[in-house]
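== Sequence, structure tokens ==
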Amino acid sequence: MANLVNQIGNQFMQVILRSPLHGWLSGSTVLVTVTGRKSGQAFTTPVNYVRQGNVVYITSRRERTWWRNLRGGGPVTLHLQGQEVKGSATVAEDNPGVAAGLTAYLSQAPQRAKYFGVALDSNGLPRADDVAHAAPTRVVIQVKLD
């Protein structure tokens, strides 16, 4: 039942993000399309993101499966703020790499830190010990836009 609810939610997000109403969500949510390594099938998933120049950072829980198709790097298509853009993605799975990526992510979107169990220091930056604690449950996908 939970899987069905998740599928319906993902489909709803895809419809909104591809519509003229995308502005409601496209500042924080992007559609990422990944090709399955074994199946060759394209999978599209809505995810939260932050952008620094031509780099998009995405986080995912480790137990999710879509990002595993990007191990070792791979091409992706993003539906980003109403436009289709291509990029090259890499995945950080090791705790130090995840911590670095999560720090970059949360430095751009400190309001999301509470969802990761991360407190902010007096300068508004994510606390390193909290980020290190969150890292084992996450991966960070870095997409360099073409």
